[in-house]
Specification:
The chain has about 210 residues and is an alpha/beta fold. It has one domain: Uracil-DNA Glycosylase, subunit E (3-Layer(aba) Sandwich), CATH 3.40.470. The chain has five helices and five strands. The chain has a five-stranded mixed β-sheet. Helix 5 links the parallel strand 4 and strand 5. The chain starts with a helix and ends in a 13-residue tail after the last strand.
């Protein structure tokens, strides 16, 4: 019996080939190998939290060859690794024991999806990737899911009026002096995965940066 990581890898590669054969989507998909999903202890029974990234694309396409695992969780020095480690620490979890991480869109894009003008590229690719994601996450019913980034939340949310990360972060205009206290989540019937989602930004918010959109 194939393990989850192997199943996802094989099915993802098959889907990528179908995408590359689609003349409408092919110009936006990069043919590079899909990064592996991450499972802390390689044991589904130990998973207590699912992390869901948007896609593996980065701004510098020359760096794609260095991305081999979802959210760079094989690289302890990366900013994402440090960010996620801090989240785990706050929640009382261990990254290398309790976490499963995957991407909504498994393939690399030729550019960051937000920089592809005139196309909602994540939504267009969702017919390929959403069914696999639902199947992939079936092993973890009831586990909470953290989503990273505004574009991902938008493509998963049923009601686009509830598709802003800041809506779940108790955003206030004077947020620096009046920090958020009443965080909320996306209910199962409000998203396409049918699971409870906790929207996060995709990077650490610096003290002087803007709040999540």
């Amino acid at each position: 019996m194939l393990d989850i990581k192997t199943k996802v890898a094989r099915k993802s590669q098959n889907i990528l080939q179908k995408i590359l054969a689609n003349s409408n989507l092919n110009p936006y998909a990069h043919g590079r190998s899909i990064p592996d999903v991450f499972m802390g202890a390689d044991n589904p029974e130990n998973v207590r939290l699912v992390l869901l990234g948007q896609d593996p694309t980065v701004k510098r396409l020359s760096s794609l060859k260095n991305i081999t695992t979802v959210l760079n969780l094989d690289k302890q020095g990366s900013n994402l690794y440090k960010y996620i480690s801090r989240i785990c620490e706050i929640l009382g979890l261990k990254l290398n024991q309790h976490i499963y991480a995957t991407n909504f869109a498994k393939n690399f894009f030729v550019s960051l999806p937000t920089q592809i003008e005139g196309r909602n590229i994540l939504d267009e690719f969702s017919d390929y990737w959403l069914p696999l994601l639902r199947e992939e996450l079936a092993f973890s019913p009831g586990r909470p899911i953290i989503t990273f980034g505004q574009p991902l939340l938008a493509v998963l949310t049923v009601n686009q009026r509830k598709a802003l990360v800041r809506q779940y972060w108790d955003y206030k205009q004077d947020w620096r002096q009046n920090p958020a206290t009443n965080f909320s989540s996306v209910a199962p019937d409000e998203n396409k995965l049918g699971r409870r989602l906790f929207p996060f930004t995709n990077q650490v918010c610096k003290r002087n940066s803007t709040v999540p959109r």
